[in-house]
Write a structure and sequence with these properties.
This protein is an alpha+beta fold. The chain contains four helices and five strands. Keywords: Signal.
Length: 133
């Protein structure tokens, strides 16, 4: 197996691990949670919506106008970095250098917007902008 092939496989496995270690709320669960606020006033939504319960962190105060109620949120994800070691070092009996867990990953904050469409201050639908919702 070539070095490039090994690195590609390792990178793919690490990305899959990163996805597996992200918040456990599924897209369907998030959608169901957000849909329950349709039919409520924008004030009621603002008072009761708990974005942290579905894995989001609110970064700005909600923006409200006559047609929309918009939340800007992030979803923090930790992605592990592959730590390649030279196979010759391992075969020669060299002791691998220990690296702290923090140095083996990096944090990413995936941003999106949750937008409730309002009619006469009542939520009629919800949609998302950004690929991370």
């Amino acid at each position: 197996m070539s070095f490039l092939h090994c690195m590609s496989l390792l990178t793919t496995l690490c990305l899959l691990y990163g996805c597996a270690t992200s918040p456990t709320t599924t897209a369907q669960q998030r959608d169901t949670y957000l849909q329950q606020f349709i039919g409520q006033s924008s004030q009621s939504i603002q008072a009761n919506l708990d974005l942290s319960s579905i894995g989001y962190q609110q970064v700005l105060s909600p923006a409200v106008d006559a047609q929309t109620l918009t939340y800007t949120v992030i979803r923090p994800i930790t992605i592990p970095m592959p730590m390649a070691q030279n196979p010759a070092d391992i075969d020669s009996g060299a002791i691998p250098i220990q690296i702290t867990p923090r140095a083996q990953s990096y944090d990413v904050n995936l941003q999106c917007k949750i937008v409730y469409r309002l009619e006469q201050n009542i939520a009629k639908s919800v949609h998302y902008t950004g690929r991370t919702c």
